[in-house]
Amino acid sequence: MANITLTNTLTNGATADADEVMENFNDIVNEVNGSLDNTNIATDASIAVSKINSTGAFLSTPSSAPTTDYQVANKKYVDDEITEESTITTTIASSATPTPARASRKTMYVITALTETATFGAPTGTPKLGDALLIWAKSSAAAERTLNWNAIYKDGSTKRPTKTLASTTKYVKILYIFDGTDWRCDFEGSDI
Fold it and tell me: Both 56 and 88 in a single domain?
């Protein structure tokens, strides 16, 4: 087999564009047609593996999210994707108008000592179909508390809770489902 001719010339120590690297990779794959071994790889000291990154610096990654399957992802894109799938928790003591902020696919909103009637506001942020909102509302020791809900919250497989008991925690799981315009109550329980 003859030496492989690469489309792009990559220089040691220079930043390489992901598309150029992939074009060279595809040139190699097309030449060897899936049969890469020592019979079709030329030995050339000028392209020794030890010289690929002789500066010790990492290749630069793009400043935006990848647009094709073969592009390198930058740190912000990866962090955003991980955060999107993580559970983000917001904790407050009490509020008459608790308003969860959609922070990820799973958002937990914890009220540690509810001291008044609470009317839950519509979650802020841009929800995606299937998002889960987990609400833990612990009533203060003094008395039960009334729970009211913005019109965007609907009964789903279970009814939305309407009160908490003194010194107990109400657990509510609400999903962004149906036609993508409202949040449906999927689970409701207490720690009694």
Answer: no
Q: With 0.90 as the threshold, say if the pTM is over it.
A: no
Q: d(Cα 5, Cα 171) in Å, to the nearest integer?
A: 64
- Cα–Cα distances in angstroms (integers) from residue 169 to residues 41, 148, 191, in the given order: 67, 16, 6
Strand partners of residue 132: 106, 175
Tell which residue, 130, 134, 128, 129, has the closest CA to residue 100.
134
Q: What is the pLDDT of residues 105-131, one digit of tens each?
A: 889 999 999 999 999 999 998 888 889
The Cα 86–Cα 135 span in angstroms is 16
| Other C-beta atoms lying within 10 Å of the C-beta of residue 1 | 10
| Helix H or strand E segment including 21 | helix 18-32
How many domains does the structure of the chain reveal? 2
**C-beta of residue 123 within 8 angstroms of C-beta of residue 99:** yes
